[in-house]
Specification:
Layout lengths: L7 H19 L12 H29 L2 H33 L15
Helix pairs in contact: 2-3
Length: about 120
């Protein structure tokens, strides 16, 4: 709270310091696994792979249904969907790897508890 004899400028400075202190206390602690990434990125990668394959299968089946080219549309749709999804997954994995390298060195290894005698 501001004192009665404080000027507005001093009161704003005190309020700013209090706000900075509050925000610093609420900031999450940096984890030792911060550079590794989320599980959400892995699920997004898996969903892209599965979506590409099933999307290609669906488009190939639809093509076969309307054009009557029994298995050829299904097979080509599967191959095209698989190729596109692998390409997208590799690009995503390379981007995740670049972000992990830019964030700093990897966390230290955990020592093994077992004896090697």
């Amino acid at each position: 709270m501001s004192e009665p004899d404080d000027t507005r400028k001093q009161a704003r400075k005190r309020l700013g310091r209090d706000l900075d202190t509050f925000e610093a206390s609420r900031a999450p602690a940096k984890s030792s696994l911060a550079g590794i990434g989320d599980a959400g990125e892995g699920y997004r990668l898996l969903a892209g792979l599965l979506g590409g394959v099933f999307g290609g299968l669906g488009l190939g089946w639809t093509f076969d249904h309307f054009v009557h080219t029994s298995p050829f549309g299904l097979i080509s749709g599967l191959l095209i969907g698989l190729g596109v999804s692998i390409y997208a997954a590799v690009r995503s994995a390379l981007a995740m790897s670049a972000r992990a390298q830019a964030s700093g060195p990897p966390p230290p290894a955990v020592p093994d508890d077992e004896d090697e005698d």
